[in-house]
Amino acid sequence: MPHLTSTTAGSTGTGVRTALGIPGYAHPLVAPAQWAELARPGTPLDWVVLDVAAGPGSRPDPHCLEAAGRLRAAGVRVLGHLDLTYGARAFGELLSDAHHHLDWYRVDGFLLDRCPTERTALPGVRRAVTTLRAISDTTHIVLGHGRHPHPGYADDADQLVTFAGSWSDYRWSQVAEWTADYPPDRFCHFVHSVPRGHLDEALRIARWQGAATVYFTDRTDRGGRVDPWEAMPGYWDDIVSLVGTGVSE
Q1: Under DSSP, is residue 75 helix (H, G, I), strand (E, B) or coil?
Q2: Can you spell out the DSSP letters for 104-150?
Q3: Above 70 in pLDDT, residue 188?
Q4: Cβ-contact 83, 61 below 8 angstroms
Q5: Burial environment of residue 225 by CB neighbours within 10 A (0 to 12, 13 to 18, 19 or more)
Q6: Partner of 87 for a Cys bridge, out of 72, 116, 182, 244, CB 3.0 to 4.6 A?
């Protein structure tokens, strides 16, 4: 099965088609150019996460509504950010945030961030996912584990984030064997601190490991002190060009 030890230029392609999943940029007032760039025609986007204020915020935000509307008009799926706090979040609070995302920003689905990975937490996550699908029957659900969870989670979500971390960890990572039973469009990888010269290698790793939705950035987390996902990578045009080529050669 596909797993990584190392990759080299000219290696055989895996036939995995990739698109970009955006974990969530800073507020549109802070990063207007970045949100506008996401709506540019032809950008290979799978979805974009809208995180107003660690969720939908306390009231409707017209700037976020406008940004989300531009993306939907461009045919891009917009996901609302929901924080599961590793299973500690109260169900009522989660459901309230979901309703606000739907009512205020008309999101197309949700990223359930900080999702637990253990088998024992499955019933709680399953309850949340079932309820979210009930209040919006076309909703797209992404579980943001950040690492490989118990395989039972794959039965409940449209996609799983099975890696979220640094390039130094990603380049030597290995994929869980059970993922081979699912198509690549079920898995997402978010990788920060990727040097420009290693973008090709990072994409080959994702394709080899069977992840069809990716996000790479040269931004760092500064030892966990900052969010590496909130700003667009310095090499954004390179990523768009590289991912937009489709299947690796």
Answers
A1: coil
A2: II--SEEEEES---SGGGHHHHHHHHHHHHHH-TT-EEEEE-SS---
A3: yes
A4: no
A5: exposed
A6: 116
pLDDT at residue 214 is higher than 70: yes
Type of residue numbered 117: T
Residue 89, SS3 per DSSP: coil
**Alpha carbon distance 240, 249 (integer Å):** 17
Tokens of 66: 């406008």
How many whole angstroms separate alpha carbon 130 and alpha carbon 140? 12
What is d(CA 204, CA 220) in angstroms, rounded to the nearest whole number? 21
CB atoms near residue 22 (< 10 Å): 24
- Beta carbons of 16 and 180 less than 8 angstroms apart: no
DSSP track, 177-242: GGGGGS-GGGEEEEEES--GGGHHHHHHHHHHHT--EEEE-S---TTTTS-TTSS--TTHHHHHHH
102-131, pLDDT tens digit by residue? 999 999 999 999 999 999 999 999 999 999
Beta bridge partners of 21: 47
Q: Which pair of structure tokens corresponds to residue 10?
A: 């000219």
Which pLDDT belongs to residue 15?
A: 58
Residue-averaged pLDDT of the chain: 91
Q: One-letter amino acid identity for 44? A: P
